Amino acid sequence: MNHFKGRHFQKDIILVAVGYYFRFSLSYRDIVELLRDRGITVHHTTVMRWVHHYGPIFKALWRRHQTAHAKNMDFELRKHRDYTASYHFLKRLLTTNGRPDRLVTDQYRATLKAVKHLIKQDYLSKSAHQCSKYRNNLIEQDHRFIKRHRVRSASFQSIRTASATLSGVEIVHAIRKRTRRELSLIGFSVVDELEALLAA
Question: Is the pTM of this model over 0.70?
Fold first, then answer.
């Protein structure tokens, strides 16, 4: 499938723009500057539309080609981190992937309440749930990348645009982590990786 058909700009230009945005802590206007230095004139709202369009596409392509043990099971963006959000997210996760041998969470009250409810509904066994500060820290540290990445960006206009943008950020981060595990970080290129993802 040609994801670039009908676009005013060439595929290579779009991949550089969205790849750099997803990989580095840059604003849309920073991307415009980088492209202008290479003789390419593009408006920052065009870059924004590319980011919103291609983030979910890269997420879908990445998930299609990953084995279950090598991918994030799921993530969800909500306006509020409360019981309702925790419950619906965990219920969907357990319904989709089945009962896990172990579910590690932090001690956030809303999450614990959601887990107790799911145990009562037999989605999860009581012995499978663990609260571990140290095991959970691995997940929290992983999310620091996204928090740091968004420092320079303006506030998201909506949940939809935030979700689309963070889809791309998550996938590029996952690709880079995989590359680091394969000990080939010296040769990492976000544009090459996205090209490979589109070609797979």
Answer: no
